[in-house]
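Hi F.,

I've been meaning to write this up properly since the lab meeting, where we talked about keeping a consistent format for the predictions we share between groups. The idea is simple: the sequence comes first, exactly as it goes in, then the structure tokens exactly as they come out, then a line or two of notes. No screenshots and no reformatting. I'm using this chain as the first example so we have something concrete to point to.
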Amino acid sequence: SIGAGGREGLYGTGAFIVEDPDELLQHEEHGDDTDITVGKEGKIIVPRIRLEPVTCATTGAGVIVNPSGVAAGGLAAYRVEVEPEDEVEDDDINWSVANGGVAFYGNHSNGREVIVRGGAAESDFKLEVQIGDLPETCRPYIHGRVLQPTVTPIHAYIICDSNGVAAVSTATVDAWIAEANRIYKQVAMTFTRASVTTVTGHHDWFEIDDNIEFHQLCSYASGTGGLELYCVGGMDVPGRHSDMNLVYGDASRGMAIRQGETGGVLAHELGHACGLNHVNYTLGGLVSQELLLEMNWSGGDGTGHYPPDLEHQNLVRRILMYPYKVNSAQDIPLGSVKGSVNVGGTVIVSPMSCGFTDMVTREPIH
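Output, unedited:
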């Protein structure tokens, strides 16, 4: 027999909740009209729990949830999905701060979505979620860090064609930066347009065809005290950043975005400016703690609290530093994520520097 309450499933099958108000599971059945179970009901509920640290999900206002960081004194949204909703109410979902300098906004720590305020000082933190009376071993969690905000100026250089027509407008540059700021709120970083320069007399840079032209383009300005963004009419890729091995002070440091692109492309190139590298995964297999590593994990066996059918090659498409242009690539993980690279025909799987802790700087400069 078994009493009511939360239980941990056998052999890693997941937790379940027993509702047995009439103690059906603790009494015998007589098998006749005196059967004590007649007209009585009980339930065994198997909740579906999702808490995904690496996600491109947003609030209704477009704010990315479950960020790797929250600004000191700032706010961030954290979300757990628990189904069936009609069986597990918001009041049965209780968040707590396991450690670190954050607090719940308005002292509201119940429900599927909560708002967290960062403390005054930088610190690592961990949130935990208690769902009903499920065992502690079934409690999902998420790691994060309180960060001091940074502001980085961007100097935009808009290249004109031979007729003097600019590749993009200032409004487009502002829209790109606004989208980048939405994404970088995850790590308490903000970018501002410090200046815009319309570049004429260099229509050969309107279409960037090779590395030589790209390096010439990026050498147009230097020593600005911020980042240099070159807006061009055409290029073989949506965006491009100079070789990160170039030391500060090298005139050819910079980045370029072609017309018709989105702010997500700028955000990706800004990741390179911060020292981040690409992450891709070409092998099969589901997400796991081994591939995501502890800082990007939220507990559980197998795929944990990520969807049970989520393949790792699809999860990396959520990450900002995914090398191909996809709208889902917005997440900045807390730490490295394993990816695959082909070296001389051999595929090697290793951690890729695509997360917050991999950033060389949060105040990049060209």
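Notes:
Residues 1-7 have pLDDT under 50 and may be disordered.
The first strand starts at residue 5 and ends at 8.

If this format works for you, I'll send the rest the same way.

G.
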